[in-house]
Fold this sequence. Notes:
The protein is α/β, with parallel strands linked by helices. Helices cover 38% and strands 15% of the residues.
Amino acid sequence: MALKGIKVLELAGLAPGSFCGMILADFGASVIRVDKIKGQMFKDCLGNGKRSIALNLKSEKGINIFKKLSDESDVIIDTYRRGVMEKLKIGPKELMATNKRLIYARLTGYGQNGSYADMAGHDINYLGLSGLLSLLGRYNEKPTPPINNLAAGFGGGSLMCALGIILALYERTKSNVGQIVDASMVEGSAYLGSWLFRSQKMGIWENPRGRNMLDTGTHFYETYETKDKYYMCVGAIEPQFYKIFLEKLGLSSNDVPQFDNFEENRRKITEIFKTKTQAEWCTIFDGTDACVTPMLSLKDATLHLHNKQRQTFTITGDDIIPNPAPRLSRTPGISHETDKNLRAGENTVQILTELKFQSNEINDLLSNEIVYQVQHNSKLFKHTTHITSMI
């Protein structure tokens, strides 16, 4: 796998950090999630393929364990607010002093400096500050943010942070030195929207939100309800594709001119789509260049022929797991699907043993709540045999 041999420490916290760690794990990295010893028993549905150690980072011994892990790691993913790790004396300055090859990735909403750097926020805030939210929504309605985490958190945050980590890993092959990755969800979202910023003078955004060619302002870039209350997605933008679209509807350009009478054309097409079921429309449009496809639910997406042929998803019980993308021909990613969530401290004893801690030391750390092992019972750890049985 592409990242085999790369060791990552992911500080448990924001979902974008979990997704960033999952990406690295899916492509072969060994990822250890560092959980809090108490109050962090959340269900992380993105923990597949990782291991967990629960540490008390407010204790000197807990910090020393973290430092040992850091010295053996290639990457740290830190989603804490600015200054938190510095207060604990385990920020990038301290950790990179003893591990010069360390890549310290900081993933936050607003970045490591600026007047908003210490503020809390969510996708809606980051997209609003990036400018992109102003472009999303229907005409004459207020801006409509996408579902939380999708655009800013996972797109502008997780993916951009993973890209920064991989770029830093590649640069390290030449310099043999690590560096800090400052991944801001605001900046990542803005960069993700580069085409939208750079195309503002191309004549396609001159109308208010929801009135332009590519933001549902036209009848040929729109969703339409079918007879059975499902939807079809229409993106027949180019004239040659629009011509095929009309032919399949039994219309001509005289009936519905492409760049005129948008609302009247939308009304006509709306009524036509309601005459057939989604399956019937798929039979008509599949295999053509009309740029018309079904809008599918999460479950139905797994059943679609194209997605099944491409093995886009893995089904585990009732769970739908999207498989890693993009695909690499020699070293593809592998989804670590599982029927359970990674629990905080699930691998604590195993990881401490790998760090050369002796059984009596591990017992002491457990008893003094420096570390936590899930389902820990102090009576179980009085003898070396019990420690060994958990490894």
